[in-house]
Amino acid sequence: MTRKTFLTALLFWFILAVLANINGLVRNFGYGPYVGEQAAHQLSTVIFCILILLATYVMVKLARPARAELIWIGIFWLVATIAFEFLFGHYVVGHSWEHLLADYNILKGRVWGIVLLVTLLAPLITGEFVK
């Protein structure tokens, strides 16, 4: 991956982080209290996946990375997201490891893993629409 592509991907990962926080605030202080925690989690997951795809489309349209770079961008975003979630969530916010892992329990309706899958695949998916 070229330096320019990496820096663009890094910038857009920070944009995704800002969008994730805004999405969480809207969930917690907007519709969350009305629909319940579980439904709010699932709805915000869908909303955030759409935001990821839209932001990624903009990034791909602007940067025009090569197909191989799209794969590396997705991997980079996935690793950065998981590292941030666990390291920041545990060491800064103070969540237990059990609390952090709970969002991965699909058998209990937790669908955070879908966000990670979309984060990984979004560059490739949107790259197909940008010619």
Secondary-structure blueprint:
Elements: H1 3-35, H2 37-63, H3 67-92, H4 97-102, H5 112-127
Helix pairs in contact: 1-2, 1-3, 2-5, 3-5
Explain the overall architecture.
The chain is mainly α. It has one domain. It is built from 5 helices and no strands. The chain is globular and about 40 Å long. It starts with a helix and ends with a helix. The mean pLDDT is about 95.
Fraction of residues in helices? over 70%
Rg, Cα atoms, Å:
15 Å
Distance between the termini: 19 Å
- Strand fraction: under 5%
* Mean pLDDT score: 94
Number of strands: 0
Separate helix tally: 5
Low confidence ranges: none
**Overall morphology:** globular
Largest sheet: none
- Succession of helices and strands: HHHHH
Q: What number of structural domains do the residues give?
A: 1
What class do helices, strands and sheet pairing give? mainly alpha
Q: Brief description of this entry?
A:
The protein has 131 residues and is mostly helical.
Could you name the key traits of this structure?
131 residues; mainly alpha; 82% helix
